[in-house]
Amino acid sequence: MKYGFGVDAGGTTVKLGLLSEAGELLEKWELPSRTENGGENILPDIARSVQDCMARRGLSRDDCLGLGIGVPGPVDASGMVNRCVNLNWGVFNLHDALGILTGLRVRAGNDANCAALGEFWMGGGSGCRSAIFVTLGTGIGGGVIVDGRLLTGAHGVGGELGHIEISAPDKAPCTCGKRGCVEQYASANGIVRVTKKRLAESAEPSCLRAMEHFACKDVFDAARSGDAFAAETLEQVFDYLGEALADACCVCDPERIILGGGVSRAGDYLLRGVERHFRAHMFHACKDTQFALATLGNDAGMYGAFRLLA
Q1: What is the residue range of 141's domain?
Q2: Which long-range contacts link 12-19 to residues 24+ away (Cβ below 8 Å)?
Q3: From which residue to which does any coiled coil extend (predicted)?
Q4: Is 123 among the domain residues?
């Protein structure tokens, strides 16, 4: 039996997992991300923690397939990182740097792509050959799997689903510099923005008016409790996201669309709403596209990072 490590390096914490070659997560733990001084401590901290785990479990280098790592930024196939702002990293070869520190084979990828690969392999995409994974959180990220392989693209930005431009009439500005990106409408922040805008533009009654500050979850809770305004708002959000996913499916034709991230905790209300609007926008040949919720939660990135070693 061979083993390996999956690492999900975030701006606050680094999540690490020891996995068997069959995909069983045997142990997981976290380290603080020490981002000071250009993030110079992050890789040595990871290396020491991995080596401690190997010593504790009696594992040699020959027992290990290597270490896969997902990072919040673009990474090319050679392992070259091109600035990870959340980690204060510049440009360097991550395969070489972490390989020297650990003595292990290293493979690196973008964190959202790793989460997509993890969900595809052991989560909501299990059993299919091609999938789109969408993370609906503060923003919108994701990844695309075609015939079992990540679609990263020529510039490492394959799967940037949040920046698909939709037909929203207000064409809200996006942090990327474009206008009308779906991230500004269907992310957690986007849903709150759309709701506040609709509240300001109408006199329609809603329990949300009594809340000085509300979150995305409050909008879903209001809709479930029978608030017509909240339900109408979410139908608009679902339509925007369904439109973006229908456009994406014309490019990569996945078997399954997997919805993850914090917003996906809304469960079937979100899933069935987005699917319904997707089917109104889709190209007819995509009629058999399936929808599923992500199942791995915060562990998806570790699974996917490990899968990079395959």
Answers
A1: 128-294
A2: 14/42, 14/45, 14/46, 15/298, 15/299, 15/301, 15/302, 16/46, 16/49, 16/50, 16/53, 16/302, 17/299, 17/302, 17/303, 17/306, 18/53, 18/57, 19/302, 19/303, 19/306
A3: none
A4: no
